[in-house]
Amino acid sequence: MAQTFKKRKSAQSISDLVGDMLAPTLRKRGFASSEVITRWPDFIGAQLAPHTRALELKWPPRCSKTIAGAPDNPLPNKKDGATLIIAVSCGVSIEIQHMAPQIIQRINAALGWRCITKISLRQQPVARMILSVPRNPPLLAAEIARLEATTQKIDDEKLRLAFIKLGKGVFERNRKT
């Protein structure tokens, strides 16, 4: 049986496609959306982001009161929001403790409601996120030919290859600007 596929009129971002797959894992860790995870460097700062990671949100237990007219619907304790648990590398925890009110304020402002009221730190090794560096497109055949023609009179092969490598770097840098 042949499958039919819908044609998309525009490209979709990977974050839109992966969101549905991550939702169950995020819910297990107390996150309703991926915003706290994906915008973490904005909340914590670019210098501290590699040394910290948002682990989970611990929500307070629900109280035993119910909403009038809605049986078995417990109300959350309105005084307490969630506790954000952050993994921190050694040496960073004191700075995060001092920044805790600002971090809470930034996250709550981004989410649009008073979600987080406390921060709890767990000192543990934090794997650094490695951001991929965008690669430059390969050099054009004309650029390579120009480099080889320019360096063909150099007798020392190592020196000639070093100049070719330097030339490639110059071409790539000039291409960006």
> Percent helix among the residues?
40-55%
- Say how many strands there are: 5
Give the SSE order as H and E letters. Answer: HHHEEEEHEHH
Pick out the low-confidence regions: 64-75
Estimated radius of gyration: 26 Å
Class from secondary-structure proportions: alpha+beta
What gap, in angstroms, lies between the N and C termini? 51 Å
Shape: elongated
The biggest sheet, with number of strands, parallel, antiparallel or mixed sense and barrel status, is: 3 strands, mixed
The fraction of residues assigned to DSSP E strands is 15-25%
**Strands across the major sheet, in which order?**
1-4-5
Salient structural properties:
5 strands, 2 domains, two-stranded antiparallel sheet, alpha+beta, 6 helices, elongated, 177 residues
Task: Offer a concise description of the structure.
By secondary structure, the chain is an alpha+beta fold. It has helices spanning 14-28, 35-38, 40-44, 93-111, 141-151, 157-176; strands at residues 52-58, 62-66, 74-76, 82-88, 116-123.
Overview of the structural elements:
The protein is α+β, with helices and mostly antiparallel strands. The chain folds into two domains: 14-123, no CATH class; 141-176, no CATH class. Helices cover 42% and strands 17% of the residues. It is built from six helices and five strands. The chain has helices at 14-28, 35-38, 40-44, 93-111, 141-151, 157-176, and strands spanning 52-58, 62-66, 74-76, 82-88, 116-123. The protein has a three-stranded mixed β-sheet with strand order 1-4-5, with helices on one face. A two-stranded antiparallel ribbon has the order 2-3. Helix 4 links the parallel strand 4 (82-88) and strand 5 (116-123). The protein is elongated. The two termini are 51 Å apart.
